[in-house]
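[INFO] parsing input record for NAD-dependent protein deacylase
[DEBUG] input buffer:
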Amino acid sequence: MQLRIVVLTGAGISAESGLGTFRDAGGLWARYAIEDVATPEAFARDPALVHDFYNMRRAEAARARPNPAHAALARLAASAHEVTLVTQNVDGLHEAAGSPALHMHGRLSGALCAACGHRWAAPEAMSPETPCPACGARAARPDVVWFGEMPHGLEEIEEALAGADLFAAIGTSGEVYPAAGFVEAARPGAHTVELNLAPSLRARAFRERRIGKASVVVPTWVDELLA
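[DEBUG] output buffer:
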């Protein structure tokens, strides 16, 4: 039977590829203040600091490689099931594994002109002096969604959730909205499952929980769906 499946992934799925999570001990927000590097106000106040932060993250993402969890989701996406893969991650590991993904928080590989809205492939490093190739303004910023900005693709995501037979959240903290509320937005009667290293803050909202490393629990879950 073909299923309509919506999968949400967070930082936990990329952790085993060497990319840091955010809220865990030693995570990015333990080392950097959100208000210093991840808001429009921070960029207006100190664009050099914000660029340095995202240049570091872009370099880390470029070195990372997909792990078995990414590969398993690529197998699921290539199956007969109707799969909508949504990610909060700004790395490109889903695409590197062969899965198209809706990046609700943007991508490190993109640049955005804060003056004219033009988008282009980000260079390895950007600075306050990086010009927009369309209008020439020195207003280049990472094409990522900062705190206080609207995530991408919400209408498409809401439509997919409303028709879902199965909703899975993988490697998410359950702290960031609107993604934390997707489990309630899934179609009434849909099966919901959380796959995580530890129960998230929203764990009790799911019908099923699978606890363990993403590289282990995700391939096992996908194997069961495809059996």
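[INFO] The chain has a mean pLDDT of 93.
[INFO] shutting down worker
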